[in-house]
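Handout, tutorial session.
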Amino acid sequence: MAARLPSTRRDLDDLRSAPRRQARLLEFVRSRLFVDAQSLKDELGVSIATIRRDLTELEGRKLLRRTHGGAVSVTQVTHDNDTTIRETTNLEEKQRIAAAAAAMVAEGDAVMIDSGTTSLQVAKLLAGNPSLTFVTNGQDVLATLIAGGARAVHVIGGEYVPINRSFSGAMAAATVRSFNVDKAILSVAAVDVGRRLICTSHPQIACAQQAMIEIAQMVIVVADHSKLERTALAVIAPLERIDYIVTGSTARTAVAAIPEKVRKKFVFA
């Protein structure tokens, strides 16, 4: 692809000015999940060496994260939108993700489902299976399971967290650890591809989810593509601790540069 050269003297002056050039670089990175260095060179019409210097500086300012051969955008999530808003965001994608995750559940499984809008879609698909036993800390998931005719449901108590309508924190984590489940299905606020972490916006939520990971034979994270564009306040676990991350098909480029051992964990729906 031919380089996109500056078309006017003003464009050239902009690119010679590091702050203006870096602002354009950031805008380009943020419009995509992942951008390789060659694409940035072609977009801005500057040398690879200049691109690499800019990426290093912007990473140092925590505005993006460098990966092998390029960069990913970083958006820090310190709080989530209200559940009502998140329920309708990327809904069709979440339903595809839920279908893929539900297909991983076998007859007779004990399934832990946390409180999250994508997890909720999984609960809708599984609730009518009489062979399954459910454990949840989610208010909405509980209501969905009961409405869907689930026969065996165990509820986790703890500190109520309004932002995702869950019972979380240390008390919830202690109760979670009294179970032994075949599958744990978790929604997260962020899949930090650069640092290979799953994160959430609230430490109390992370506390309960960490316990869920400990007691599950298989851990399945469900996250729409937007979750791969960000990081979040509270670390839940490294990606290495997760068996599968089910996400949207548009997220393929975001994971292209990570090690193959981790990349194989991603399932695209």
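The second record follows below. Compare its token runs with those of the first.
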Amino acid sequence: MRNITYHVATSLDHYIAHEDGSAGGFLPEGDHVAAYLAHLQDYDTVIMGRRTYEFGYDFGLEPGRPAYPHMQHYIFSKSLQLPDLSDQVEVIAEQPLDLIRSLKDGTGTDIYLCGGGEFAGWLLDEGLLDKLRIKLNPVVFGKGIPLFGSSQRAINLILTDTTVYHSGVLLLDYDVRYT
């Protein structure tokens, strides 16, 4: 069975973005960036919500194209309309649980949950999130989009690895244990 890994940058106060969805304040340079790019090779499938996919437009992503060329993309949204889709991009508007369970039961590497917070919280609530790979940035936002959106589900985490980067970013790997 494949794992779903929430691989995400957070502030010290556990926000994945500012309230407006921007990510200013996360370190865009440093020794942690090469490690992040290398870790992306661990995945052949990426899942995300609409706002996370559209966030890529600010960085040159063209609508309907893959953000990560070596991965199959599943964008979960009831409102996203992309008329010209790459073969690597699917928009999922209905029965998301069935597809996610099918992906987990399928073959391939672990599945990269790119975001966002509400989608991650929904997966957590459904008991489908298996691992966390948190890039803890040395910044405090004060308010913003929470790591797990509005989810209030309690879980236990087992720390499996840590990496401290000279940039000040900490990479924290956890296995999720549901209570």
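Points raised in discussion: The chain has one domain: 4-155.
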